[in-house]
Amino acid sequence: MKRKMVSVLLTAVMAASLLSACGGAGASTESAPAAAPAAEAAPAAEAAPAAEAAPAAEEAGAAAAEEATGGADVSGKTFAIVVKSAGNPYFKKAIEGFTEVIEGNGGTVVVKEPSAATVDAQITEIQSLISQGVASISVAANDENALQATLEEAMAAGIKVNCFDSKVNADSRATFCNQAGTTEVGQALIDAVLDLSGGEGQYAILSATSQATNQNAWIEAMKSIQESDSKYANLELVEVAYGDDEPQKSTDQTQALLSKYPDLKVICAPTTVGIAAAAKVLQDQKSSVKLTGLGLPSEMAEYIGNDDAHSCPYMFLWNPSDLAKLAAYTSIALVKGEITGAVGEKFTAGEMGEYELKDAGDGGSELILGPPFQFNPENIAEWKDVY
Amino acid sequence: MAGKSGRSIKAEEKLTAKKLLFTWEGALILLFIAVNIFNMSISQSYTFANVLREMPKYLAEMFMVLPMAYILVLGDIDISVGSIVCLTGTLTCYISNAGAPFPVVILGCLGTGLLCGAFNGFITTSFPELPSMITTLGSQIIFRGIAEISLGGGGSVSYTNTKQIMPLSTKLGKTVPVIILVVMLAAVIFTVVLQRTTFGRSLYAIGSNKVSAFYAGVDVKRCRFIAYVLMGFMAGMCGLFLTAYTYGANTTTGQGFEMEVIAMCVFGGIASTGGKGTLVGGIIAGLIITLLRIALGQANVNSQMILVIVGALLIIAVLIPGIKGRFDELKKLRAAA
After folding, report:
1. Other C-beta atoms lying within 10 Å of the C-beta of residue A43
2. CB-closest option in A7, A34, A118 to B45
């Protein structure tokens, strides 16, 4: 029977050694321990300005003094980033960008990559961050509403919460770093059409479904920009086709467009499924019609090129690294108290320039990263392995 | 009342304090203390208040450890529980969003769980020749399928009236989460039933030897059916409390819970071969795993590494009795020679 005891102790020792071995691998932080804020502040985002008024009240010691004087850097403070799941190259880029900015400003980064792409796993990670008493949390949410209870708890504990890539609802955040502003996407797409068509001629749009919110908003933006400026006057939108984000239907719709409009010059597909399907059709048929839109570099790499052998000279999507950098600057601004998350506030995001918080249309505020990122023959090799 | 295999029923043993220390449960208590000391050393944030705050999400799973112990003691297994959590959670949201009063929401959720459990129980007892691993694998896919159909294209649903569900996630006196009290109550009831009632002993008898239990007059079919129904009911309970914390459900709700719950039971000394182990062990083991995960999370050990550590602990725990058995055999052989 004594053996059992010995083996149990052995287990403990083994587990301990395992842990000390891997402890170094995980991001270890020697940050200030939880200040155990007992503040029972109203958990809603609207309460954030009130909490901001006396930011020092909840912080402990030197950190508080520094903040009260509007300290220039954020050394000694911990900034957390919670991504959707581990092993996702898109978020690996995001983490790189986030870390670069925070560490460049003297802060400490805690990276939380949930073991599964579920909201449950994210709740666990965020709860752990609340215990650690981090200064801010930037989260790419797996669900818009499910994190509300947890994030409200975090905000009540004095932690600044913002989200990037995928937002949480307005009650659960100070602000949202949006990668795709409707106008910015519309502008980039219509300019690409203008460029590829040589300034005049017919173009068609291959969209997702007819009810797709994002795509419809972008298409509307393209149309209104086209009407507002005379330089687009010679462009003619012949049809908006719907491929329903199904590869086969998108392929069929592309072929239909080609046979219906022999003078077609450009197809613009603001959906990753549509653009990939159209790219294949155009390239296989050696068509002279050019393609642009929003696409995943990994899927589009073989179609991107400036010569006639490639169907897509360039396309757009956003840069996850830049997005996370913006989230990092936003976190710093929130922690310093430069912004509270109210619409109309402005702050300087380091080398990225000045940003203004805009109305997100859901009761909260958002920051728009800027024009989408262009993927062209020069940079596609670098990005095709990322996402 | 010794079984055919010669094992005696735990409940009838007279336990002294010294003996208790040398049982698996005693060892677990020591490990529990060791883990807590270890946790405090790796994480400065490992305080009582923080642990209490982080616990509830894990405790929802603890609901399922209790009936899972019954099913494992029977020598059965139920891997559909994660899907039941998803289904009950989803339906609870829909019932609440349809404007139903709070008691109806709770009854609807637990009722759905009960029905799922009854379905499992019916299939398993009607076709005793099929291993329960396979039948519940089937129902796992069916239940999650139904949940995904009702969730539709968006893949998630959230409470429109979060105030209604909030009482389940509140804290009494702002410190003690309600769920802890409910889990404790359920744990006491399940432990007493398993360890101190005829039904509980029947489960051990069936798990030790189904055939001899049948000839001894135990209603094997009925006992197994009840165990599955309880399992479904408690999975519903888990779904109810989980959605109270996540304000909604989606297609990934409850994913992988079945394995975590079974792992806690097995770590607690409840053998999956049946007839062995106590619920006290399962509960302590569940707490050990939970606390370890909380502390490792606080120390920012990455989430995959935490899974590796918990997995390693589990394998070691399962191996120890086996190694001990081999030592005993060797001893016997030497004595004979």
Report:
1. 18
2. A34
User: Within the 124-143 window of chain B, which residues sit less than 8 Å (CB to CB) from chain A?
Assistant: none
**Radius of gyration of chain A from Cα atoms?**
24
Q: Does B32 touch chain A (CB under 8 A)?
A: no
What residues 34-53 of chain B have any CB closer than 8 A to a CB of chain A? 34-35, 38, 42, 44-47, 49-50, 53
Whether chain B has a CB inside 8 Å of the CB on A149: the answer is yes
Residue ranges and CATH numbers for the domains of chain A are 44-179+320-370 (3.40.50.2300), 182-317 (3.40.50.2300)
In whole angstroms, how far apart are CA B14 and each of A76, A243, B11? 57, 73, 8
> Which residue in A340, A375, A327 sits closest to A97, CA to CA?
A327
**Separation in Å, CA of A371 to nearest CA in chain B:** 28
Question: How crowded is residue B128: how many other Cβ atoms within 10 Å of its Cβ?
Answer: 12
Q: Which of B27, B159, B250 is the closest to A5 by Cβ?
A: B27
Classify A138 as helix, strand or coil. strand
A117–B256 C-beta distance less than 8 A: no
pLDDT above 60 for B201: yes
Residue A269 pLDDT exceeds 80: yes
Give Cβ neighbours of residue A292 (< 8 Å, ≥ 6 apart). A189, A192, A193, A196, A266, A267, A268, A269, A312, A313, A314, A315, A316
CB contact under 8 A, B35 and A12: yes
As a whole number of angstroms, the distance between CA A294 and CA A117 comes to 24
pLDDT surpassing 90 at residue A24 = no
ipTM surpassing 0.90: no
Is the pLDDT at B128 greater than 90? The verdict is no
Which residues touch B281 (CB under 8 Å, ≥6 apart)?
B24, B25, B28, B268, B269, B270
By mean pLDDT, which of A68-72, B5-9, B130-134 is the weakest? A68-72
**CA distance linking residue A256 with residue A191, whole number of Å:** 25
For residues A174 and B154, the model is more confident at A174
From the candidates A2, A10, A11, which should be mutated to test the interface with B, based on the most B CB atoms within 10 A?
A: A11
What's the token pair of residue B129? 């020749």
DSSP per-residue string spanning A180-241: --HHHHHHHHHHHHHHHHTT-EEEEEEES-TT-HHHHHHHHHHHHHHHH-GGGTTEEEEEEE
B2 CB near a chain A CB, below 8 Å? Answer: no
Tell which of A112, A143, A167, A244 to mutate to test the B interface (max B CBs under 10 Å).
A143
What residues 258-317 of chain B have any CB closer than 8 A to a CB of chain A? 293-294, 296-309, 312-313, 316-317
| pLDDT surpassing 90 at residue B143 | yes
Task: Locate the chain B residue with the closest alpha carbon to A13.
Answer: B34
Across the beta sheet with A264-269, the strand order is A235-242, A201-207, A264-269, A290-293
Which strand (E) or helix (H) includes residue A164?
strand A160-164
In chain B, the residue whose alpha carbon lies closest to the alpha carbon of A39 is: B174
Size of interface A-B (CB pairs under 8 A): 172
Mean pLDDT, residues A264-289: 88
Options 1.10.3470, 3.30.160, 2.60.40, 3.40.30; CATH for B15-328 is 1.10.3470
